Amino acid sequence: MAEETIYSKIIRGEIESEILYQDDLVTAFVDINPRAPKHFLIIPNKLIPTINDIEIEDEIALGRMFTVARKLAKEAGIDEDGYRLIVNCNAHGGQEIYHIHMHLVGGRPLGPMLLS
Ligand code: AMP
């Protein structure tokens, strides 16, 4: 059994966060340490530690993460200028929290593909 992270507490509303969207499959909230004017996190409600742990049955939740990204980008007014979606995996990928999360970053030109 994978160990819960702070994200599970955010999903359950046990710690404070700026929730932007939530349904039965995914939750989206503002990143606490934004690296761009808009920086949101979109996560599956199910604890999937890394991309390596994804199972076929997770495809619906993972697809929902993209449709929520589209919706949030539009609401934030960054859809036309553009933005970036990032999912880090394990140490070399820079993953710090072991519950899959999609970063949605935008609000300024982001430059070449790798952030910082
Ligand atoms: P990663 O390096 O891909 O694992 O990204 C983890 C992200 O989670 C970082 O961008 C952090 O700023 C963000 N983060 C950590 N704790 C919180 C929190 N309590 N609320 C919102 N974002 C958080």
TrEMBL record:
SUPFAM superfamilies: HIT-like. Transmembrane segments: none annotated. The active site is at H101. Residues 6-115 form the HIT domain. One of its GO terms (molecular function) is catalytic activity. InterPro entries: Histidine_triad_CS, Histidine_triad_HIT, HIT-like, HIT-like_sf. Signal peptide: none annotated. A motif (Histidine triad motif) lies at residues 99-103. It holds the Pfam family HIT. This is HIT domain-containing protein. It comes from Vibrio caribbeanicus ATCC BAA-2122.
